[in-house]
Write a structure and sequence with these properties.
Strand 2 and strand 3 form a beta hairpin. Strands 1-4-3-2 form a 4-stranded mixed β-sheet. The termini are far apart. It is globular and about 45 Å long. The protein contains 3 helices and 4 strands; from the N terminus they run H-E-H-H-E-E-E. Helix 1 packs antiparallel against helix 3. By secondary structure, the chain is α+β, with helices and mostly antiparallel strands. The longest helix has 17 residues. It has a single domain, classed as YaeB-like fold. 26% of the residues are buried.
């Protein structure tokens, strides 16, 4: 039995995320949380976020996948039961370790979380 997601599936989700973000506006799973995270990163307003996310997605590859296996399902009402795709990587654009979690629903990109990576504490 294969453990999900496979490398191919992760590649496919990243490719799909890049495509839908180019074609359609960015949506937020939880707008209040997103505003706080965007502010914490010093990214200005949310209008700057879509082009930045397009660049950040180009930095990410399947080896950066840090989500659960199989992917967790969202409990946020706007994306209820959608799979969550989480990645941690070293961003050359932002110059720091980053964490990004998103969901794809009905051909749309939903930002769930973006922040400086907080490595898991042991114990």
């Amino acid at each position: 039995m294969k453990v999900r997601p496979t490398e191919r599936e992760i590649d496919k989700r990243l490719t799909e995320a890049k495509r839908v973000l180019k074609e359609k506006d960015l949506l937020f799973a939880d707008p209040n949380k997103a505003v706080g995270e965007i502010d914490d990163l010093g990214l200005g307003d949310s209008s700057e976020l879509r082009p930045l996310l397009q660049v950040l997605l180009e930095e990410i590859s399947r080896v950066d996948y840090t989500g659960s296996r199989p992917p967790q399902r969202s409990y946020e009402p706007s994306i209820a039961n959608c799979e969550l795709w989480a990645f941690s990587w070293t961003s050359t654009v932002l110059g720091k370790e980053m964490y990004l979690k998103f969901a794809l629903k009905d051909g749309r990109f939903y930002l769930v979380s973006i922040h400086q990576d907080r490595p898991q504490k042991n114990g």
